[in-house]
Design goal:
Blueprint lengths: L12 E4 L18 H9 L2 H20 L2 E16 L7 E2 L10 E5 L2 E7 L1 H12 L3 E3 L7 E6 L4 H9 L3 E4 L4 E4 L2 H10 L1 E17 L7
Parallel strand pairs: 1-10, 2-6
Antiparallel strand pairs: 2-10, 3-7, 4-5, 5-7, 8-9
Length: 213
């Protein structure tokens, strides 16, 4: 359902109201597409083909599981990306012709970027931390930068669950204590601060166990 309803796992979207049996019962689902429909799907572009496949899966769940849902806004914990007190340490850079939206390499403990916006950096940081990051830097350009930190998934995850604060003696300002937070401040002159933001919940109104074949 995450894929079908676009739940991307950054913490700003969630599914609520699922019956307990959905966490334990397992099903093998085999769905067939008619030959004419399969030919039509093959002729579609990737995005439209994916949209049509999602609609097919949704129809299957409605017919076999009696699924009914609605969406509602919720308040969620987020991080805001802001400049540190000493200001950003970023070098402006433009995307090249081959990569008009910039390029970025993301591995464990490393983000290397060329011609990247702060909005995109916020999105990548959200993926690293499992929590939505909102760009509040006010920086509208594109930048080249390298961010390196000692990756520790358990420590980084802890920062998403309970914000713990340390004092940076060099700048006199508080910062979150996981390595990625301190590296962000020291190397790029940016900070992440806990805040509240807008999210969305997919509420399950009805879901039944499927009837036998």
């Amino acid at each position: 359902m995450d894929w079908m309803y676009g739940i991307h796992g950054f913490g700003d979207q969630t599914i609520v109201g699922a019956p307990k049996w959905t966490g334990s019962d397992r099903y093998d689902i085999e769905a067939k597409v008619s030959v004419p429909d399969a030919e039509i799907l093959r002729m579609l572009g990737r995005d439209e083909r994916e949209r049509q496949l999602k609609l097919m899966f949704e129809t299957l769940l409605v017919e076999r599981f009696k699924l009914a849902t609605h969406r509602q806004p919720i308040e969620i914990p987020v991080y805001e990306l802001i400049p540190a007190k000493a200001g950003p340490k970023l070098k402006e850079g433009k995307p090249d012709e081959r990569m008009p939206h910039g390029s970025m390499t993301v591995t464990a403990g490393l983000i290397s970027a060329k011609g990247i916006t702060m909005e995109r950096l916020a999105w990548v940081l959200g993926g690293q931390l499992g929590r939505k990051v909102e760009d509040r830097t006010g920086l509208t350009g594109t930048y080249d930068f390298t961010l390196q930190w000692e990756s520790d998934n358990e420590v980084d995850a802890k920062a998403s669950e309970a914000d713990f604060v340390t004092q940076n003696p060099a700048s006199g300002e508080n910062s979150l204590g996981a390595p990625i937070f301190t590296a962000l401040q020291d190397q790029l002159g940016l900070r992440l601060i806990p805040a509240k933001g807008a999210g969305e919940a997919l509420v399950i109104d009805r879901l039944e166990k499927p009837s036998p074949n």
